[in-house]
Design brief:
Belongs to the ABC transporter superfamily. It comes from Pigmentiphaga litoralis. Keywords: Amino-acid transport, ATP-binding, Cell membrane, Membrane, Nucleotide-binding, Transport. GO terms for molecular function: ATP binding; ATP hydrolysis activity; branched-chain amino acid transmembrane transporter activity. By secondary structure, the chain is α/β, with parallel strands linked by helices. It has 2 domains: about 160 residues, P-loop containing nucleotide triphosphate hydrolases (Rossmann fold), CATH 3.40.50; about 60 residues, no CATH class. It contains 10 helices and 10 strands. The strands form 2 sheets. Strands 6-7-8-3-9-10 form a 6-stranded mixed sheet, with helices on both faces. A 4-stranded antiparallel sheet has the order 2-1-4-5, with helices on one face. Strand 7, helix 7 and strand 8 form a beta-alpha-beta unit. Helix 3 packs parallel to helix 6. The radius of gyration is 17 Å and the shape is globular. Adenosine-5'-triphosphate (ATP) binds next to strand 2 and helix 1.
Length: about 240
Amino acid sequence: MSTLMKVSGLKVAYGHIEAVKGIDFELREGEITTLVGSNGAGKSTTLLALSGLVKKNGGSIVFDGEDLGKLSPHKIVQRGVVQVAEGRAILTTMTVRENLELGAYTRKDRSAVGADLEHVFHLFPRLKERLDGMAGNLSGGEQQMLAIGRALMAKPRLLLLDEPSMGLAPIIVQEIFRILREINREGLTIFLVEQNVRQALKIAQRAYVLENGSIALSGSGQELLKDDRLVEAYLGG
Ligand code: ATP
């Protein structure tokens, strides 16, 4: 598998707080990579840096051979690096259809947009049923599905997710993870930030554990599920 994104020495600080302290990782094309760790470890900050939404203080982010460091968030999305926002961030007073259409607003290949909409309906039949309803009336799980669907409408080459399992019932979490696996099988590269360590490691080919802004462990998802240090710290012994 070739490297789609290579992150080297990434540093991000908020004033005097060093949230990310010079981390290295790579995302391989066609794989699910996960970044796990506890509250405040710096996971969200790392994702925001990849999307260009926070300024990095050092290091480089190279996507498909191009340094993203100087690009605006808008240009980064156009390159195909698309983030599903934490807390969904869907537009609750707009319809499901309008939310999905918004995901595609920067695209110039309008003819392909219709086909991608059909694909989103295939992945999330519930969204098709509720197409003309207000997004704010969807359940938490449906809103997360809409947020993922909207990101897919931007035609990502790399999909970034920040805790898609947050606040959802276990059965809905299973469903969301099943769909992530399906999208990945279709070829999409995924970078998944999660506090739900067990579920994330189960679906990830590659995993990194972030502690206090530094990478503490890395390996395949399967390896880390069996790693004593990780089991003790994150999986309840
Ligand atoms: P969570 O799961 O709670 O989102 P996280 O692993 O994603 O945790 P971050 O949100 O990246 O961690 O936070 C990393 C560190 O940076 C924490 O110490 C946090 O308090 C701090 N931090 C995050 N955002 C800001 C901000 N906008 N201003 C100042 N400090 C911040």
